[in-house]
Amino acid sequence: MEGTVIRSGSAGSEEDGTEVESFQFGEEIQGLMSVPPESGSSFTALLGLPATQAMELLHSPESDEAPATLSGEARVDQCQKPYLPSFNCSPSFPSNAALVERAARFSIFAGGSGEDSPDTNSMPSNSSRVKNEPMDTDSNPTTPPPLISDPTVGNRNLKSAKRKEREKKVKGPSKKNKNVASESSEDAEKLPYVHVRARRGQATDSHSLAERARREKINARMKLLQELVPGCNRISGTALVLDEIINHVQSLQRQVEFLSMRLAAVNPRIDFNLDSLLAAESGSLMDSSMFTPLVWPEVQVNGNRQQYQQQWQYDAYNQPVWGREEDNHNFITPENSLLSYDSSANSGTSSLRVNLLKMEL
Amino acid sequence: MGAPTSLKQKFLKKWIMGLQICGSSKKEMGILERKKAIKLAADVAMASTRTATTCWSRALIANASKCDENKMLVEHIMGSSQSERLSVKSACMGCNKRIRSKKILGRSKSISRVKKIAPQKILANSIAKRLVKKRTQVLKSLVPGGESMDEFSLIEETLDYILSLRTQVSVMRRLANATEHSNRK
What we know:
The structure holds two protein chains of two kinds.
Chain A lengths: L1 H20 L3 H10 L8 H5 L14 H4 L2 H13 L16 H10 L26 H10 L3 H26 L34 H23 L9 H29 L7 H4 L3 H10 L4 H14 L6 H12 L7 H11 L5 H11 L1
Chain B lengths: L3 H21 L6 H18 L6 H10 L3 H11 L1 H7 L3 H23 L6 H24 L8 H34 L1
Helix pairs in contact in B: 1-2, 1-4, 1-8, 2-3, 2-4, 2-8, 4-5
């Protein structure tokens, strides 16, 4: 169950990625910005998780080594832990002292509480090692089947010995994301802090940790930006990505300027033939992407644009953008559109064309 | 585009409203004036679809309302209730001071801290930091209201701003194409 919960979490974050590609991002960004993210599956939600939902899960590494049945049972047992009352973990803390002390050398977290919603299980979607150490502490006093409690007691000693090596091996190269932990069961709900695990070989004072948390937040946002700006995926390095973003924003602003100049040039007075244009305005913006007959007037529009925009410098950038937008519902290359425009320029179906164009708007 | 079409429609409606106001004025406008009016109407319409949720929209509208002649247009597009909400500029001012004091505090802390890094890395780090800093300065100048933001919110604002710019460009382009085509016919 735990594995599936984690998998759904990572699938959720992947979904976010594809949504970004399909440009439904606008509304999502609005939602993201106006409402604090609540779903534990999006990775941006990771950054905004309140401490009340915070819980650090320690995945028991010994489940790999222990016999299959035992590991299965231990995992099932761990899955049941979230629902156990929290006060049960306090009597188990003294027995954990050695473990906690050793853990404190590597990280700043203390043993967590055993109670929380399963939502947080899905939270660290990127971290491969999700440990369940506090879960094990709960298992002793509260687990009904004695079969499990004994092996877990035995396991803990094994764990304390073996975790050291494994953490050394894995923690060095692996990158730890921010894991949110609660210090004890009583303080879990009230802590306003976000706990970050220190990486091996790095300073553990609060300044550098806070800095690192901040940097990771910024890096996650930069990744979002990279997905948004076309052609930024391959680039690594903040300065270059920022360069691309700046270029993109500048080009968009320049396009707005040119387009408003075009509009000013088209009308001697600022009046638009609104009754015809607005006739189907409410439905048109949606229709244009759904109606196949509109493929044809799109052709006209494309051909139009070709002729006009040879004078403008930003054509080279526009065409791929335009093509990409329209590609969803008509696969017309610029050459195609130009040819078909020429061929149909003399046709007598002008009224039909205009009507469809108005609907397009 | 399923979801953003509602955004496009909202933007288009507000923009056309603003343009109607511009067009109803009797004076003769040169092409540059027309262009400015069109662009202003478009920008304000775009910002008003995002009002009170993003900083750049507020800053854009505040800038637009600075000159009196634009003010009427802005208010009409926004609707009177929203423009009153936006006239609380003091929030932005307090925001500025808070961020400035945070930066001073952060800088004073970092001075006292000592980090052990190899000397080559220090050079590389400082160069990289300088580059990034220059770029963020440029980005701040591009995004409206960007100067008063810290790095993190700057990135969020840029995200939103890029999206709105995109919809703005696509709607304007369609209108331009449609009017040109209908004119030619």
